[in-house]
Write a structure and sequence with these properties.
Shape: globular
Number of helices: 2
Distance between the termini: 34 Å
Structural class: mainly alpha
Largest sheet: none
Length: about 50
């Protein structure tokens, strides 16, 4: 997963979301959820895109 995130973090989002939802280990779910929150586009996090 680390290598995948370095190459294309946005391509890893579907798998990370799946892990956050379905992994049997709470620590993996928590880490996946935190990672999704860090790499999602700013617009989906409530930020306004810069129009400069």
């Amino acid at each position: 997963m680390h290598a995948w995130l370095r190459v294309d973090a946005h391509a890893a989002l579907p798998r990370l979301r799946e892990m956050a939802r379905d992994d049997p280990h709470p620590d993996v779910r928590r880490a996946a959820l935190q990672t999704v929150a860090r790499i999602r586009p700013p617009e989906t996090a409530g930020a306004t895109p810069c129009r400069a």
